[in-house]
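U., I forgot to send this yesterday:
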Amino acid sequence: MSSNARARLFGVGTGPGDPELLTLKAARVLAEADVVAHFAKKGNASNARRIVDAHIRPDAIELPLLYPVTTEVERTHEDYRCAITGFFDRSAQDLAAHLEAGRSVAVLS
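Result:
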């Protein structure tokens, strides 16, 4: 989407894991998105990102949202709650900055 298009946020489901089962609408949104955001563990590639690889524009901005913890800290521990809350707050700010700049953003799930 061009920079003068109205900024939009899209949630894009990646389906059951087979890249050939991505919906036509998901493929269209990804082909037009200025920014593609995806959740991943630090140091690992996102499975959702791998699934949609063929549909992302070459000039799209990639925004990996890297989880600060996964299994290192028990989910019931206060450190986990603090880390994950901060992570989601920062992720929301990062997404908002792109939207405020007029970019369309696709968030993979």
